[in-house]
Write a structure and sequence with these properties.
The structure is a homodimer of 299-residue chains. By secondary structure, chain A is an alpha/beta fold. The first copy, chain A, contains nine helices and 16 strands.
Chain lengths: 299, 299
């Protein structure tokens, strides 16, 4: 197995190769003057196992095209391809919310599959169940580094002062799992979002029982609006708020919004090409390497 | 059959629908704050014929993703999809020029096909033979509007003063065809381009026999460098130079470069989202409508 990075890889490929003792290769890339992407693998790999590493944020559409190109090349040379996407774009449009909407995740997964994808590995994907369904016969592994968060939070805070907060029903399983690892309780905030207007309504009353440290968990923090609302509510009641999110997209002024709302610490994973100063990025690579070994993706 | 436009459509869809007497619908579109594309068809179309119209320039990768999304939706509703791509991106990377290069066109075509493409229609695609091969069982129609150019040029110039120029061997067939329609002769310039450095060498001597009006033809004008070189050579010898190109991408200062090199008139087709002042865009829509009828894509 060789580890091959695409241009979106936020430095995970070389560290994985190092930890796993595998050869590392990087796609050469440029844009033509007209804006088309050009890729080239500096070394032909044929009839091998390939662990291809990519993130799809920012510039989701460029990174989508890079994936199509790379899979075409690697499968034409009959390689057995495992694709590790550290941040999977279009994962939130996993069904037809309103009539006439594409299921974006399905289109992406079908396009990738058609180009010879063997195994797909994601880091804490938003819709693992939908993904598995869309993938058909390809193998799928979703790595959720709960333990990485639990370890960092436990090192810093005492479990007696902790409550994990799920900012919506969709995050309940995630909150329950982290709370179990931390040995604390969790609370779920009910949320309803209008897909088109983006308007969100919350039921914040359950938060009145929280004191000490609140750990608000989510898979993706985009504009940070939801979490900032919850953090303001909590911090105005004297609760210290910590955020633990796998994918910190932090669109626009998301970081400032969270800081202003009283968030005292933000833990995230280095899954995207964006690094925000003030965020504590946890080292997930040893955990991923261990999982890939356990799943026999690599020996 | 309904005509449906994607965001890249440079206004061809509505005019085609009008000429063909078909219902016209446009995808609603926006970008989410994180940069992901959102599409929605304001009306569900099910078990119908759909003529989907898109251009892939500029912003080739955004328009690629739009195509994937739209095909997913339309094929999930069991429509019979004809996709008209007025400018097809990635058509020039139609083989592995250097070892380790993806065949970009193949990856694009395979991805589109996997999402339920019935018939593909292109306007003067760069690599129709490769396209047909990559498409497998899908139907493929390449519309080359030679007659549209011939008509415009004949209206303006006398055939006795015309010579058609192919700027490289790849344009020879195109030059021969236009010359035949115009009733004049043609000359081919030999060219060699290094795929990586982009360096081009020309053999311009055959142009010494040209006088009067030279019509330089090509499918795509990107940075305009090749044609500007030929135009400078010709105009310094007193030849008036006209350019006839299907797809005028005109990257950067391409237009100024051509104007400075002595080009007196540029004919192009409105196949992209870019409109350059000074270029004469020829109305190709009646020609396309006629071809689509002849090919029974629409009744």
């Amino acid at each position: 197995v060789r580890v091959v990075s695409l241009p979106g890889d936020p430095g995970i490929g070389p560290r994985l190769a190092d930890l796993l003792g595998l050869e590392y290769i990087q796609f050469l890339h440029k844009k033509f003057p007209d804006g088309e992407i050009y890729l080239r693998l500096p070394k032909v790999i044929e009839n091998e196992g390939v662990l291809l590493v990519q993130s799809m944020y920012p510039n989701q559409n460029d990174h989508t095209v890079e994936l199509l190109l790379a899979l075409e090349l690697l499968s034409r040379y009959r390689n057995n391809i495992t694709l590790l996407i550290t941040y999977l774009a279009y994962a939130r449009q996993d069904k037809e919310f309103l009539a006439g909407e594409p299921v974006s995740l399905r289109s992406l997964v079908k396009a990738l599959s058609s180009l010879g994808l063997g195994t797909l590995v994601t880091i804490d994907a938003h819709s693992p169940l939908a993904l598995r369904e869309f993938l058909g016969t390809s193998r799928y592994i979703n790595i959720v580094p709960d333990e990485v968060f639990a370890e960092a939070i436990s090192r810093r805070y005492r479990r007696e002062e902790l409550t994990v907060i799920a900012p919506d029903q969709g995050a309940e399983k995630r909150a329950a799992s982290l709370a179990e690892l931390l040995g604390c309780r969790y609370v779920v905030v009910k949320k309803a979002r209008d897909r088109i207007t983006g308007n969100v309504t919350h039921v914040l009353d359950p938060l009145d029982s929280v004191s000490g440290i609140a750990v608000v968990v989510d898979d993706i923090v985009s504009t940070g609006g939801t979490i900032a609302g919850i953090a303001s509510y909590l911090s105005s009641r004297g609760v210290r708020v910590v955020v633990a999110a796998s994918h910190a997209l932090f669109v626009g002024d998301a970081y400032d919004k969270l800081a202003r709302s009283g968030v005292v610490e933000i833990y995230a994973l280095p899954t995207t090409g964006v690094t925000v100063s003030g965020v504590t990025y946890l080292d997930m690579v040893p955990y991923i390497a261990r999982k890939l070994r356990e799943e026999k993706v690599v020996e």
